[in-house]
Structures are given as C-alpha cells and as structure tokens.
Amino acid sequence: MADHTEQSIVMNADVADIMAVIADFDRYPEWVTAAREVHVKERDAQGRGVQVEFVLDAGVLADTYELRYTWNDDGAGVSWGLLSSGLQRAQQGSYRLVQQVPGSTKVTYSLMVDLQIPMISQLKRRAEKAITEAALGELKKRVEG
Predict the structure, then answer these.
(1) Which pLDDT score is estimated for 62?
(2) Beta bridge partners of 99
(3) What is the tens place of the pLDDT at every residue in 13-70?
(4) Exposure letters 3-38 (e unless 16+ CB within 10 A, then b)
(5) Burial 48-84 (b: 16+ CB within 10 A, else e)
(6) pLDDT digits (tens, 9 = 90+) for 70-95
(7) Which alpha helices (H) appear in 38-120, and where do they start and end?
(8) Could you give the CA distance from residue 21 to residue 51 in angstroms, rounded to a whole number?
C-alpha cells in the first residue's frame, strides 16, 4: 500500500454544516485556491456529486482530473478515488468528521497521490502534507468565515 498523509483539525461548526461545504463542489473555486474550475458530472439521489471533474492550477503543477466520491451513510464523511488524470496515476482521499461537542467537530483529512512523473518519496510526502494543510485550512476558513 502506498504511503498517505493524514491530518486533523477542530472546526467551530457541527458535522452537517461542514459536510454541506465539502459537498458543495460548485462553489470550490470561490475558496479552494488551486481549483480553477469544478464540474459535477454525476450526482446521487441526495444531489451530492459522485463524479466530479477538477481543473487544478497549483503554480508549478496543473492537471485536469476526475474523482469518484462515496458518501458515508452516517453523513459524517466522504472518500474518493481517481477516475482519470493527465498527471496522476492514483489518488485516494477522505474526510472523516467526529462531533466533539455541539458547535465543535474534529475533521480528519487523509490523502494519497501517485504522480505519473517520478518523484522522490520525501518530496512526495512533503507535497501531500502541504496539500492536506491547505485543504484543512481553507475548509476551516470557509466554514467558520
């Protein structure tokens, strides 16, 4: 199994409010710095995206890729896997949310990315860590802002 990066943060919001932000792919370009465009190609019966295309521009790296999402039945998480990409060979990730007390939720973000271009594992781990830190920081700012 490939190495992955995992980080957690506590947000001042309830699980449902955070999941609503995570599920609102159409608004990602408003708050996810590297997301230039996001297109929901398929939705589930609840209207949540299950196949989503991202146009990513993170400065030195740019990619257009599609992910397949699986939403947890308990409403407290989501996981995804890569369907297609010009730059990535694999991507797996998840958000897991645990209500601490009313108005406070622990959010754990897990990510594994394998690029088609060779990369030293130490640099890959650093990049994954930077991505997870940015994802959690931007999500917290959007949820609490």
Answers:
(1) 85
(2) 105
(3) 999 999 999 999 999 999 999 899 999 999 999 999 999 999 998 776 789 999 999 9
(4) eebebebebebbbeebbebbbbbeebeeebebbeeb
(5) bbbbbbbebeeeeeebbbebbbebeeeebbbbbebee
(6) 999 999 999 999 999 988 999 999 99
(7) none
(8) 17
pTM listed for this prediction? 0.90
Q: Which of 101, 102, 128 is nearest to 114 (CA)?
A: 128
Give dist(CA 90, CA 73) in Å, integer.
25
20, two tokens: 């609503």
What does the alpha-carbon distance between residue 83 and residue 90 come to, in Å, rounded to a whole number? 8
Q: Which of 2, 35, 24, 17 is nearest to 135 (CA)?
A: 35
What are the φ and ψ backbone dihedral angles of 33, each rounded to 5 degrees?
A: -50, -45
